[in-house]
């Protein structure tokens, strides 16, 4: 009997010892895991910023996956999300989602592959959100690369003179327009300030770029038209191109240079609410011109960067302006598009404000008269939008 008790005690001790070893082993794994987490956090916070895993990197990865896939993943935890499935939704294919995340290639969109293989094809990486009349992926807004002579100080100063379009009086004797008083609420600036138009240049001009006769003329007209509608506007005419040369920077860094312009304006002009970056498109006149009531207008295009948080707010603003434009000037707006990817800036400084948009005014072949008519139209449409928004804000 004593031997049996001794045997049971020995087995109990062995089991206890075995369980104790398992506990030590598990504790050791947990401890090593905890140490590993602290080491990883320390590594991520101490390495140089250039090598850190930024939120923009995660955004780039996740942007390759369709939104409905995330909706499906959330519905696995909460079935309420199943009620938000879009019509015709197909069940999530895990293999396709992993493939898109790993390669950034979308099987149903050949641009995601061809854009990396064909030179210049990445220019079509943008997404058309709202297509105006005649707008498709072959007529999207395209930025033309400037010639090397854009940095040449010996540029020709002679331009073709054009008669300006007279502005219509926006007031009536019995009606006084509202006004922002001495407050400037709109900033107009030009990241590619030397983008020009052939009708403004000598006949032998081969590139539509000029230091004086350029997109800034449209900015002046837009500001004046806004003022005539009671909205104070500030025009910044910083020669971004000249500053790039002075700092030995490349042309693709223009948005980095103009960013300081916007930030300085924000810090010194407390009343600013909206930020318009005006550009000139480079496609043919047949796509950038329209006839409205017997008059020729340069068409516009709203461009929104898609690589920053809350870009949907700026996109909403562009959509609303496009819709109002269609009501008052059908065909004037070519639409709204977002741009992102390796071949473009992806932000256009719009991450600085939720009321920032980039507007393309006409193309290289549009005349000053056509551009001025469009600037007046944009000012009128925006003014209606602005005062309506102010009224709603005041009612609240």
TrEMBL record:
Pfam families tied to this protein: SpoIIP
KW Ribosomal protein (keyword) present: no
Top-level lineage group: Bacteria
Coiled-coil boundaries: none
Transmembrane regions: 28-47
Transmembrane helix found in the keyword field: yes
InterPro entries from the UniProt entry: Spore_II_P (IPR010897)
Keywords of this entry: Membrane, Transmembrane, Transmembrane helix
Name of this chain's protein: Stage II sporulation protein P
Organism: Pontibacillus chungwhensis BH030062
